[in-house]
Design a protein that fits this description.
Elements lengths: L1 H22 L11 E3 L4 H6 L6 E6 L4 H16 L5 E6 L4 H6 L7 E5 L4 E2 L6 E2 L2 E3 L6 H10 L6 E3 L5 H6 L5 E6 L6 H9 L5 E6 L4 H6 L7 E5 L9 E2 L6 H11 L24 E2 L2 H4 L7 E5 L5 H7 L5 E5 L14 E5 L12 E3 L3 H7 L1
Helix pairs in contact: 3-5
GO molecular function: protein-disulfide reductase activity
Protein name: Thioredoxin domain-containing protein
Pfam family, one: Thioredoxin
């Protein structure tokens, strides 16, 4: 009896200790670059964010592998602060979100791409989520995340090409003259954050001395903004620190107005009415389209919503500035053009024109 009572006492103690360990939170979000994500805020913070790349870990507090991975994941978040957003989901508490993303083991890391779409049947916002299967280290996560930042949003500028860069489109321009040949993850993230509001370009300073002279630059890295419709002589130089937060604040102050929310102002919860599946594309957007097939309407074209719903997930349907109709094969607006699959096929000269009526849209489909 004594032995049995002692064993029961020890068992109760062990269970109490196990419960205490299990209850200890894996992350202290108050002192971390990580964002605590829940069923209540995931759609608003992550899915509704069209200007950021998100790296999200699904974990459980009791999971041994999660505990081993946690320091590296938190370090990766700190290393990419201001460049890539990092969040963590306690999958046992946020079971709805974990189930939605097919999480069945811990830790699971997914990278959610910036582009936001709305399912025409459920009315829900959605994003492409890529599974991370690399090393469970800070370096592994950082390398994978930065490899997914879109590079096509940053225009390559060389000597002889500055005037063309400044005159293309109606957006203000910002040009970074850097000390390295490759575009940095920071600049890619800034271009993503300001997509549709400011066109960013990059020049390797040592290989572009004429460009540097035109902007009054005598050292690298140097960043300059040129207001819309202005020339290099009217450039404004940045004099602050080359850090993400300061750079974004300065560039935002010189950018165009914020774009309207894709859900019509109703937020991530769908309370603002059904969102249009037809994307409004600026001239800058047209220079950085993805690989999907596109149907573009220039000017007033009826039937776009029906086409977008019928081809959801297969074709991107967008409205483009009427003034660009001729560039994409139409004589004048209204006009319709189809861009075939593949990034290399997105040149305007490859566009296939169609009539701007129901028959034309059906043929484009």
């Amino acid at each position: 009896p004594t032995t049995s009572a002692t064993m029961q006492k020890y068992m109760r103690l062990l269970l109490a200790l196990a419960a205490a360990v299990a209850a200890e939170p894996l992350y202290d979000f108050s002192s971390s670059a990580l964002v605590e994500l829940t069923d209540d805020n995931f759609e608003t913070l992550v899915v509704g964010d069209a200007t950021s790349l998100w790296v999200v870990e699904f974990y459980a507090d009791w999971c041994g592998h999660c505990k081993q991975f946690a320091p590296g994941f938190a370090k990766a978040a700190g290393n990419l602060k201001g460049i890539v957003k990092f969040g963590a989901v306690n999958a046992e508490k946020a079971s709805k979100t974990a189930s939605l993303y097919g999480v069945n083991g811990y830790p699971t890391v997914k990278v959610l791409m910036p582009e936001v779409t709305r399912n025409p049947y459920t009315g829900k916002l959605g994003k492409v989520a890529k599974d991370y299967g690399g090393p469970r280290t800070a370096r592994g996560v950082v390398d994978y995340a930065t490899s997914l930042l879109p590079s096509e949003l940053v225009a390559a500028v060389t000597d002889g090409g500055l005037e063309s860069f400044l005159s293309e489109g109606a957006l203000p321009k910002a040009l970074l003259l850097g000390s390295k040949p490759a575009v940095s993850p920071l600049l890619k993230s800034l271009a993503l954050a300001l997509k549709g509001r400011l066109q960013l370009g990059y020049a390797h300073g040592e290989a572009a001395p004429e460009t540097a002279t035109a902007l009054g630059v005598d050292g690298f890295p140097r960043l300059a903004v040129v207001p819309a419709g202005k020339g290099a002589a009217e450039s404004i130089s940045y004099t602050g620190e080359m850090k993400a937060e300061q750079l974004l604040a300065w560039l935002t102050s010189h950018a165009g107005p914020p774009l309207p929310p894709k859900d019509g102002g109703g937020g991530g919860g769908g309370g603002g009415g059904a969102a249009s599946l037809v994307r409004d594309l600026s001239e800058s957007d047209l220079s950085s389209l993805g690989a999907e097939p596109h149907v573009l309407a220039f000017g007033d074209v009826d039937g776009l919503e029906a086409l977008a719903e019928a081809t959801y997930g297969q074709v991107v349907v967008g409205r483009a500035p009427a003034a660009l109709a001729a560039k994409y094969g139409g004589k004048e607006a209204p006009a319709v053009a189809m861009l075939p699959f593949g990034a290399a096929e997105k040149a305007a000269k490859k566009a296939v024109p169609f009539a701007a009526d129901a028959a034309g849209l059906d043929a484009a489909k």
